[in-house]
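SAMPLE LOG
Freezer: B-3
Tube label: C17
Construct: single chain, 199 aa
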Amino acid sequence: MRPLSPQQDGIATYYDATGAGACSYDASPGDLRVAAMNTPQWDNSAVCGMCVRVEGPRGQVTVRIVDRCPECLSGHLDLSREAFAAIADPADGRVSVKWQPVSCDVQGPVIYRFKEGSSQWWTGIQVRNTRVPVRSLEVQQGAAWVNVARQDYNFFVEPSGLGVGPYTLRVTGSDGQQLIESGVMLRSEGDAPGTVQFQ
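STRUCTURE (predicted):
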């Protein structure tokens, strides 16, 4: 897991996390090493899926951002109970930490999740299982790449639709890496497996 940006000082608290939340991910009862990002650093959901290494009084843990903490100030991470217990005594409730975004240790290629209700006339796509957070999603139309607008619930949505497909998509990571995926088939909802992954 390589660093994606400098380490920063912050605060950690905890909540009853399920893995679901403002990032529109599914609950992940088998992996609750998750956290909610403070509102000032939420960046219109661009931090969703980002992995963060957190160092606290008792040790360190790597969590995945799945939610937003509305009342948290900049530098504040709201961890799952399980993740907080790995770095501090839960009885403390609130501790000083150092944290740093890092690449995620994911397996296999990226996954394209089509939002329920997607069609050729309205299309919502989320990019999952990525080593680095996703900065932008574009679709090829003729010789041009057209940006698909990101929503604050972590889907890229084209309100007039992307047509019947199949689509060629270009995914840009937070570190500038780009993936090009062709042959992505339209689904009314659910996952379309990809074939590529960030380094």
